[in-house]
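Retry 2 of 3 after timeout on previous attempt. Resubmitting structure tokens to design endpoint.
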């Protein structure tokens, strides 16, 4: 399978200010393992960013505690051992991910609702609604069976969905003391990254 052709012809790329274009998809590996959330990227920007950060750390322009002397080691650790990765040569099939919000929908998600927390309600074209929340990532979200991200028609920012079906603003609702009234909050899903040259 020509992964690059599939991605370029079927997946709208998402621009990331740190890592460049990403193509959000789902894959099947050679052993039959299905990964519903994979971001494909060209490795060049990540490599250049790593080299830049290594140089900054070595020259003393550290964002880590300079007195510990661990800045360089910590930044190498970040680039080398963090994150989930999958090798492109283990992939036999790529398809659209039902958990990836289309870009025009992602662009409607606006800022933090509270410190390190973004909440919103998504309304679907059949009138149903789901509540969502994330501490950081908006690449992929949990979606119950029967829901497709591409069927979302509206994002209602900084809001919660109640079990009654009512949508309430974060400002007028205490989600800690009234959590029993809330419908399930669908969170962000963990994802893998796959780097492919020439993408």
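Retry 2 succeeded. Sequence:
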């Amino acid at each position: 399978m020509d992964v690059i052709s599939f991605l370029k012809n079927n997946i709208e790329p998402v621009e990331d200010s740190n890592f460049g274009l990403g193509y959000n998809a789902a894959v099947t590996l050679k052993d039959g393992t299905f990964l519903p959330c994979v971001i494909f990227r060209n490795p060049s920007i990540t490599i250049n960013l790593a080299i830049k950060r290594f140089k900054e750390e070595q020259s003393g322009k550290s964002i880590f505690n300079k007195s510990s002397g661990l800045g360089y080691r910590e930044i190498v650790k970040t680039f080398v051992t963090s994150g989930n990765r999958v090798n492109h040569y283990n992939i036999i099939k790529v398809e659209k991910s039902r958990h990836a919000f289309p870009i025009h929908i992602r662009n409607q998600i606006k800022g933090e609702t509270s410190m390190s927390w973004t909440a919103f309600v998504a309304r679907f074209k059949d009138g149903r609604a789901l509540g969502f929340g994330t501490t950081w990532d908006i690449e992929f979200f949990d979606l119950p069976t029967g829901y497709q991200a591409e069927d979302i028609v509206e994002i209602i920012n900084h809001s919660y969905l109640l079990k009654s079906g009512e949508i309430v603003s974060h400002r007028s609702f205490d989600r800690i003391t009234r959590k029993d009234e809330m419908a399930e909050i669908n969170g962000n899903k963990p994802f893998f990254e796959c780097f492919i040259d020439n993408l």
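Attempt log closed. The helical segments are 3-10, 43-58, 71-81, 103-106.
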